[in-house]
């Protein structure tokens, strides 16, 4: 499997380029580029890890964190550019609930079927809960104020920018806190960097080069993928919300999904939690606010108002995930509960 | 008192049969059948315990759980059959908040006045919190999606059935988890089966016979009781919501009420919590979804949409109960807090 | 600084009396009386501590608690008398969120920059969380019932009075619990009385006399201050909500702010938490319900219905504060998170 990775990566990349530029059938285009994005996301992940290996753990953790969600961020930027704000927000929502419910749930279930109870750093669990809560608050407060008090568009945008700035400040603070001042308190965090395997074989220069190449590849495939999404809404009558929240989110997070489950099966649930929850946090505290500023640069401002059902879905996912992870341990049943909530949300979104 | 139990049980059963078939005054009918249901619920409880004694702890726990709420389930089935959906949902709501606030509150207060601090299994507390949260989510998500996105009746029903199926899967998983795979982790659970007393004197055959008889008696008395409830709404102008949520719920849970307080006074707060919270969980994760399927069989489908005030009441009860029980200990003041929240809800429901 | 306290107190008191009776410019009046209220609130705090010193810890704690929020209560009574119900509720809201976010956040941040992790009694943290939750429930339930079920004005008032009575009962129970029956369990509580310093030099008679004088001074300055608030709404177009929730609340809590930060810097985070959270609890469980009864006495009844944004703000503040303090420890980053949520709320209120 490992040997075949690069040949497959290149084959699929070429295939999806052909599909896109030769205007193949859009369903075929979607399938090919969806498979390709899984490979390029995996490549990006490996390249980030390799650079992290040379950059040292601190800077490495930061790179790992910022490039880890690069696929989502790049897809989202293309969506913002095309003005598909509803789908952007839906895909951010889907990414958060997908990580907290699907990735964390599948990891806890898979790991829990093998091990009776899997423990991880309880301090980290508590901090993660507070941070996720901040993310929910940042979405909830503007929505409730705008809805109840009928703020003007200008005020809504100013409020959005302020909240976005606050989230980015919180995120930077969290990096300083978790990687500098209180690193030892949250030790499980380090596990994520373990087990590089083949990537360690790359030289420093190679690693950086691969990182750049991977990012460019992700950018291209993302654009091709986004171009096909209207098929689902136009041809199959699915809502933008469902496509964004489930299809885009599952494809965009494929790399995290498999990595987290593998780690859980090796009894490294701490690292799996870090990927799932850490990724959600990054979407909420970094990707979402960055997109607000990006939209301003495009001259077509996107506000931070999510719909009631999106906020409800995120709120519910955060509540159940923090309730389950607060004790610093997971079992198969807790994993199952998370997956069940994901199913409930999936069905509900499908009918919207 | 114990000696008089069976004579009183039979006397009241006969009396309420007379009241029903001779069409006595409906207030008299209500009072008599309400008292009778307390006795037959108590009988059902004893019979279940006796069968559990022979069936072994695992199967026993399951029987205890499924027959424990039989009275509520049977009352609710009659209400569903008569199409009184609002009253069904109100009585489910009342049952959940009654168990979490009144039963748990009275137990913690009574026990706490005798003992400074009463401790119970902290793992169980955490698991219960997550499960209750699932119940709240399962009620909240359909309500918010249907309300915000104006789902069609057909979609609402499909969503209801899916959510109901998810809840039953979660409940079955919980039985497997708490009675098979992680039994030892949640040890307090076993306490509920302690202290059978007289019931141990029954033979295996007797126990099963009594279980069948008790269930049939509960079914009859429940139907007679339900037939009188319109008096409160028609004659005294009370809302279906108040009758269902407070009168039906208090009568239907009388057996649990007294049992839990008695256990708390013997410093077995773990068993009392298990009755109160376990009963709520069963209503939310088993009784409610089963009723959806029962209504489909009757050809008159009931959806899972609860009103805003019902969801608010359940949400609030779950929040305060889990906040108080999360540390695996209760005191008199925590019991008092739960009772105060129950009073607030009672007054609010009365004015609806 | 300490030497100058009394001369400055008297100078500012006289100055604000002149400003008020000679009808100076209202902005000048506001600034002078705002500064004066900080001094008189500080004086009231010292006098309360001194009386507490002679009355013993139990009664002392009670006095400390009831006089600690005297400034807010007196300001609020004047607002109620003038029928400015919206501003009263806004200032109560502001007081709660100001204490939970600004005071607690600043303390945790300041203390956390000096000490890596600051610990306090974990039992107290849990109890505080449950009590704050009761406060939120007491505001949330009437609002949701009245809004969803369109209660009549009479029923709304009856519901308000019941809820107010329940809150006062809960508060009295809490005093008994935390100062009599379970005092030792919540030991950090005692720290608040530490470090009297100069006040210990006052005799018993002097202390009582100063307490009376301080209360009278607070009453006068509060009335003068309230008289100037319309300037902000009339002249600068700020909403009553913003003036009440941020300007009145910050001025009225100035004494607590500085005291809590000082204690955190001495590594007494337990006492700082006690001031911040205890003060919020008192506003929610004592000051707010007392005002309902006060308004009845004035013959102009105020109900307990807070606006959606106020309840959202309080709910959010309670959620993040309890999530952060539940583990019985604080760090600089947790303090920063609280301050960031305060900023988000401040901006949102400003635009209303």
TrEMBL record, chains A, B, C:
The chain crosses the membrane at residues 29-47, 59-80, 92-113, 125-145, 157-177, 208-229, 241-265, 277-298, 304-321, 333-351. GO terms for cellular component: endomembrane system; membrane. One of its GO terms (biological process) is intracellular calcium ion homeostasis. It comes from the Bacteria. Keywords: Antiport, Calcium, Calcium transport, Ion transport, Membrane, Signal, Transmembrane, Transmembrane helix, Transport. The keyword Ribosomal protein does not apply. GO terms for molecular function: calcium:proton antiporter activity. Residues 27-179, 207-350 form the Sodium/calcium exchanger membrane region domain. It is a multi-pass membrane protein. It is found in: Endomembrane system. Residues 1-19 form the signal peptide. Its main location: membrane. Pfam families: Na_Ca_ex (PF01699). Belongs to the Ca(2+):cation antiporter (CaCA) (TC 2.A.19) family. NCBIfam families: cax. Ca(+)/H(+) antiporter that extrudes calcium in exchange for external protons. This is Ca(2+)/H(+) antiporter. It comes from Cohnella nanjingensis. The lineage of its organism: Bacteria, Bacillati, Bacillota, Bacilli, Bacillales.
